[in-house]
Design a protein that fits this description.
The chain is α/β, with parallel strands linked by helices. The protein folds into 2 domains: 88 residues, Orthogonal Bundle (Arc Repressor Mutant, subunit A), CATH 1.10.10.10; 198 residues, D-Maltodextrin-Binding Protein, domain 2. The protein is built from 11 helices and 8 strands. A 6-stranded mixed sheet has the order 4-3-5-8-6-7. Helix 6 links the parallel strand 3 and strand 4. Helix 2 packs across helix 3, helix 2 crosses helix 4 and helix 3 packs across helix 4.
Length: 298
């Protein structure tokens, strides 16, 4: 016998409301059913059990002995179900799942996320990283931090920061070669990931004609953070986003030899479904991250 036949949940819900309120009409108003529909559900339940549940008198109904035995168990069962649903909703509200590019996660989010958790200790955070553009309909994710133009159908996108870039290297490496005095001097060094289109854009803006990047060895490291680590270790010059490396520049681990900074019209965005923009945990994270980045802007 199927579960729906053994446990007619809808009819049991109607029974509990009628017994509690003592009225078919008032139960229908509470549940959103007509009196006829309420009567039909009670009839189905009585047929399922094989016993009448109510004594029907003019302007009055009362539980039969069978109904009196059934009511406490039904009320208890629906109470347990309500508690279960409430606990699941509470757990969902308490966990914020963030998807981010690896570079943004490592170079900004991981360094600053603690302040969000201090402000909102009731919200647990789970961070997922990859450079893939995830689909909210297929992934268990609340918000995503993406690089792009901010145009994603069905999503709200709040701009966080410009994705700009400029060359950086170890001060020690610059000193070893007698200093970096002109953009052409960078070509005397190993270019970390010469295939990165940012290099061609930057050299063009710097007025360097034909830097011949295509003839150089390719060394795609997969994430800007790894390229920065190679540059700090003195393995060459990398092209990086200055916002992510303020601490390294301030401490002298990295050197930005030229003030010229370029961008290709891309930004980092906080994206989330339009339908979920007012979920408290999403609203809290949006307010925090936009304020945090704005507060750090030069």
């Amino acid at each position: 016998m199927g579960l729906s036949r053994q446990f007619p949940l809808n009819a049991l819900r109607v029974f509990e409301a009628v017994a509690r309120l003592g009225s078919f009409t008032r139960a229908g108003e509470e549940i959103g059913m007509t009196q006829t529909a309420v009567s039909y559900q009670i009839k189905l339940l009585e047929e399922n059990i094989g016993e009448p549940l109510f004594l029907r008198r003019p302007r009055q109904i009362s539980l039969t002995e069978t109904g009196q035995r059934l009511l406490p168990k039904v009320a208890e069962a629906f109470g347990i179900l309500q508690e279960a649903m409430a606990s699941v909703r509470e757990a969902t509200e308490e966990t914020l799942i963030i998807h981010s590019t690896a570079t943004f996660a490592q170079q900004w989010l991981a360094r600053n996320l603690g302040s969000f958790q201090m402000l909102h200790p009731n919200i647990a955070v789970r961070l997922k990283t990859s450079d893939d553009v995830i689909a909210f309909t297929r992934e268990a994710v609340d918000v995503a931090i993406r690089s792009g133009n901010g145009q994603w159908p069905g999503l709200v996108a709040d701009r966080l920061m410009i994705v700009d870039f400029t060359p950086m290297l170890s001060p020690r490496l610059a000193e070893e070669m007698g200093g970096i005095h002109a953009p052409e001097d960078l070509l005397k060094l190993r270019i970390i990931d010469a295939g990165d289109p940012w290099w061609a854009e930057w050299f063009k803006a710097a007025g360097v004609e034909n830097p011949d990047l295509a003839s150089r060895p390719r060394s795609r490291l997969g994430a800007q953070a790894f390229e920065a680590s190679a540059a700090i270790a003195g393995q060459g010059v990398a092209i990086l986003t200055p916002e992510f490396y303020r601490d390294d520049l301030a401490s002298g681990r990295l050197l930005q030899p030229f003030p010229l900074v370029c961008d290709e019209g891309r930004n980092y965005w906080l994206a989330y479904p339009e339908s979920r923009r007012n979920i408290p945990k999403i609203r809290a994270f949006r307010n925090w991250i936009t304020a945090a980045i704005k507060g750090q802007a030069p």
